[in-house]
Amino acid sequence: MKRKATLSVLDARERKQREMWAEGTTRAYLQNHVLGVSEGHTAILRLVGVGYRATIESSAITKQPEYPGQQFVSLKVGYSHPVELGVPKGVKASTPQPTRILLEGVEKEVVMQFAAKIRMWRKPEPYKGKGIFVNGETIKLKAKKIK
Known about the structure:
Blueprint: H1 15-22, H2 25-38, E1 41-48, E2 53-57, E3 72-76, E4 83-86, E5 91-94, E6 100-105, H3 108-119, E7 131-134
């Protein structure tokens, strides 16, 4: 049994409403919400670099949980201390391998925002190709500057 919903612009004479629908902003938000509820959104993060590791932990040393049962992503990415980030509500994090993080959730915006927050700690750099890559992201390596 297929369910069908029909949406239309409330007042076609009002410019802002017409533009929001015509440019696809509203349609894209609705599509992302429907897709999130039916299939879910995922983000796969790859940690590339010697000694770069990630683990999912139930408690953190440096942070307090924002809600009961919150998990924490612990990153070892070349700093003198592990980086601990609280997993937002509605996002499920897992590590199939020590160098991979799998984020799953219903809201695409929340999943991708958390992925960007993790990536911020080690953005991919173009000289050695090290860093945290999101969803198959690639970078073009640069040659060394020779005098």
